[in-house]
Amino acid sequence: MKKIKGKIRNIISIYRYFGLSLGCYNFLLSIPFIKHISLWKKINKKYYRLCKDYLYSHYLSDYSFDDSDEIGRIDENSNIWVFWWQGICNAPELVKKCLSTIIKFKGKHNVVIIDKTNLMNYLDVPDFFWSKLENNEISIQHFSDYIRTRLLYKYGGIWMDATLFLTDNVDEDLTKYGFYTIRHGERSDYHICEGKWSTFFMASCKGNKFFKYLADLQEKYWRNEKYPICYLIIDCFISLLVDVSPFCRDQVNQVPVNNTKTMQLAKMFTKDYSDVKESVDEIIKNTKIIKLSNKCKVNTSPDSVYYWLLNVYDNREEKTAL
């Protein structure tokens, strides 16, 4: 019942703040069985097209780009940024396991865990963000979307969501680029990112204007808006920048396809490991960065894929190059 009430409040808020069209499409996407019909992809694509139209007209149409600076390369000694607002001691078991793999396979990078006690040591965050957090006008997820872009612009480095499970050292190929992300190629027919980028893993050189633009646009949005137009606001802004800025578009397009099965393992968490062993082993062997989730359904029995990953797999399997 609580979940249903939340969906109803969301539909009403989208209609109130962003108009009838977005409200109607938001309603359609909230229907429980909608994902099981073929029309869902078209509805989802149209919804995010409307979101992009709104964001462009209100925040991007008069934005001044400055692409004069050349971008550098990602530093092999730069920080890996991990965010867990409540502090890693209070994180779920899955997050702690993921963090242990990030630390194990960090290579020459230093791992910095950002939480509510140390964020101010790295960034000066505008006061209105703190007010919105206190009043529940911005979620921790949307707040972290802003924080990751600010950190990457100011310091450079690698942003990794706390639910990333690493099976090998961070790819040295990152140092060939000024921008890098997981380009898995999935959901290219309907998702806002078209499989070209993943905000849960983004790397950049210090001072890359791409991330300045993203930080500016999100800051402008949250300074003016009282409600999120969608869950994937940062992806909408990335998509818009790819549309209108050759500087940003070139950076995204030069990232090679990598970690194509990054999201497959989480889908198997309810299954017995013995039933899907071949598929699991193939993912582990050929995927360096695996996206998990602490919100998906799991089977905690000793026979499950979930249990095997957290308690049996020891990260010592030999890897093949991607």
UniProtKB/TrEMBL annotation:
InterPro entries cross-referenced by the UniProt entry = AfumC-like_glycosyl_Trfase (IPR008441), Nucleotide-diphossugar_trans (IPR029044)
Does Transmembrane count among this protein's keywords?
yes
Q: Which Gene3D superfamilies match?
A: 3.90.550.20
Q: MF terms per GO, please?
A: glycosyltransferase activity
**Coiled-coil ranges (or none):** none
- What are the UniProt keywords, alphabetically? Membrane, Transmembrane, Transmembrane helix
Tell me if Membrane is a UniProt keyword of this record: yes
Q: Which residues cross the membrane?
A: 12-34
Q: What is this protein called?
A: Capsular biosynthesis protein
